[in-house]
Design a protein that fits this description.
- Helix 1 packs across helix 3 (74-87).
- The chain has 90 residues and is α+β, with helices and mostly antiparallel strands.
- A four-stranded mixed beta sheet has the order 1-2-3-4, with helices on one face.
- It starts with 9 loop residues before the first strand and ends with a helix.
- The radius of gyration is 13 Å and the shape is globular.
- Helix content is 32%, strand content 30%.
- It has helices at residues 44-53, 68-72, 74-87, and strands at residues 10-17, 22-29, 34-38, 57-62.
- The protein contains three helices and four strands.
- The chain has a single domain (10-87), classed as Ribonuclease Z/Hydroxyacylglutathione hydrolase-like (Metallo-beta-lactamase, Chain A, 4-Layer Sandwich).
């Protein structure tokens, strides 16, 4: 049985990314280290910096909505984020 995330173990950081400066949120559980990135619209190094500051490992990238301009670059943004994550794997 897994323990539920409690407010004491939940960590979150929200900040603007990409050309449209849409909010990206990194959310996770500090007790397990599991993290999730919501709306990664660009700036992969900035996102990975937030992930590292919170002590998390990314388990999923989640898009909650779409802007036509952002979706045109969505695949490229996800690949950039994967490359940024890979650079931090020992």
């Amino acid at each position: 049985m897994t323990a539920a995330m409690t407010p004491a173990t939940m960590v979150r950081k929200t900040f603007p990314v990409g050309p449209l400066q849409c909010n990206c949120t990194v959310l996770g559980d500090s007790s397990t280290g599991k993290g999730y990135v919501f709306d990664p619209g660009g700036d992969p190094d900035l996102i990975m910096q937030a992930v590292a500051e919170l002590g998390l490992t990314i388990h999923a990238l989640i898009h909650t909505h779409a802007h036509r301009e952002a979706m045109n670059n969505s695949n490229a943004a996800l690949l950039d984020l994967k490359r940024a994550a890979a650079r931090r794997i020992p």
